[in-house]
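pipeline: protein-struct stage 2 | run 1193 | Nif3-like dinuclear metal center hexameric protein
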Amino acid sequence: MTVSLDELMAALTRELKPEQFKDYCPNGLQVQGRAHIGRLVTGVTACQALIDAAIEQKADAILVHHGYFWRGEDAVLTGIKRRRIKTLMEHDVSLIAYHLPLDAHPELGNNVQLAKILGLNPGSALSRQNNHDMGLVAQLPAPMSGADFAALLAARLQREPLHIAGSEAPIRTVAWCTGAAQGYIEQAVAAGADAYISGEISEPTVHSAREHGIHYFAAGHHATERYGVQALGQLLAQRFDLQHQFIDIDNPV
């Protein structure tokens, strides 16, 4: 089965409501390809390796969390950017990208999907952005040590987290926000969390964790944001009877 690109984009707009977000990049169709889609590849970032792998799988469109044309970047099409877009256009493959709308979606979003992977039951929002929940908070069924929680993250995400043990106290309440949301550690403290999970870490985050007495886990930007785009791809595959494949291009960050 195939679906028209216009129909697919209309469905994505209804589902993700990108017009409600003030984002760092354009959300939606970023590079237009062929008019009908039967094979959809999803991935985290539209790097050259993902594009090449998708073309090898004869994809009609690629759906990602991290696309192109970020705010503040040079607008000229040279170097890496030229090669990526040239490859897409030569093979008539569409590139579709959703950033904050995919983070915040209440069912398909990266934060909700990460909770499912970790077996957490979100109880409240960590913060609000664009009038949407950004990050979540949950109570653990039973207290865990920082070391045991780090082992849980490693097992579920297949990546060893960087653990900043700001406290020796057990973890009862966990807050998280995927990707490069280490700056939300202050909101996690305000929410009464014993631990905060994000994807990345910056130098000030270490001191914040230690001085606030909170466990901080840098679990990987890529590792924490693999799941929303997969859930979205699966939804589209079921709705439009598409062939869907998630391609994971490993990234240690």
